[in-house]
Amino acid sequence: MRLSQYSKGLRASEITPLLQFFLSGILAGEALAIGRIIGVLLNKHLVSLQLNFWILMLATLAVVASCLIYAASRGALETSCKLIKSCRLDLLLVTLLGFYLSFSSDGFGNEFYAKQLEKLNFSQLAYMSASPVLIAWMAMIRALLQTFKKGQAHPYFISDRVIEESEEDLLNVKEQADIFAERVLNGGSSESLVFGIDAPWGAGKSSFVKLCINY
Predict the structure, then answer these.
(1) CA of 66: how far to CAs of 26, 77, 134, in Å?
(2) Using the 8-state DSSP alphabet, how is residue 166 labeled?
(3) What is the C-alpha separation between 158 and 137, in angstroms, rounded?
(4) 175 to each of 22, 96, 199, how far by Cα in Å?
(5) What digits encode the pLDDT tens for the residues 35-75?
(6) I need a labelling partner for 105 at 20 to 30 A (CA). Which of 61, 150, 174, 177 fits?
(7) 170-197 pLDDT per residue, tens
(8) What share of residues in the chain are helix, strand, coil (percent, to 5)?
(9) CA-CA distance, 159 to 101, in Å (whole number)?
(10) In 98-207, which ranges are E strands?
(11) pLDDT at 206
């Protein structure tokens, strides 16, 4: 019994989360390395521009506040509590291991990052730094607006409902359906005549028949 439980712990479904958290730690370390390089480059530009200290402090606080608000909106606190209650120390350890490997080497792609970022001017660096914050705010504003739109669903998938009217024909099948229906009627065919429509699932066979009936 114990051997079977041990074998279950070595299944791919159990190892995959460890790899995911390990990669998350590495990505966090790489993001920190990029952030440090951007910070150094921005500092050089800011010194030359002689911007007010309080302006920089307010900008920094705005970024930190935005990150905290976004994390709270995504339920980061609840997720963290669940991880703590699960007592999955292995996930914490592999995350810290990935972060340490990246952090101790100043980022695996540190030279590449620095070489590419040095080509950017102050405006480009500022936009790059602000873009994650702007994206987060756009996502939060969109989610907030959705809460006020009651009864208005926005499905991610197109419905496979049979079209009822020709106005719903977005693929211009009506012309073919009209030609087909006219030939059948003009041919004086009997009620026992059978036609077959062969097409893959979702190609619009039922809609084609419906358009023929409407004709």
Answers:
(1) 23, 15, 9
(2) G
(3) 28
(4) 57, 63, 18
(5) 888 888 888 877 776 666 666 677 778 878 888 888 888 88
(6) 61
(7) 777 888 888 888 877 666 666 667 777 8
(8) 70, 0, 30
(9) 48
(10) none
(11) 84
Backbone Cα Rg of the chain = 30
Where do the structural domains in the chain lie, given as residue ranges? 8-148, 166-214
**Amino acid identity of 192?**
S
Which tokens hold the place of 46? Answer: 């800011």
pLDDT digits (tens, 9 = 90+) for 1-46: 566 666 665 676 778 888 999 999 999 999 889 888 888 888 887 7
Q: Which of 101-105, 128-132, 184-188 shows the highest mean pLDDT?
A: 101-105
pTM of model > 0.85: no
Handedness of CA 87, 21, 72, 149 (dihedral sign): negative
CA 92 – CA 86 distance, rounded (Å): 11
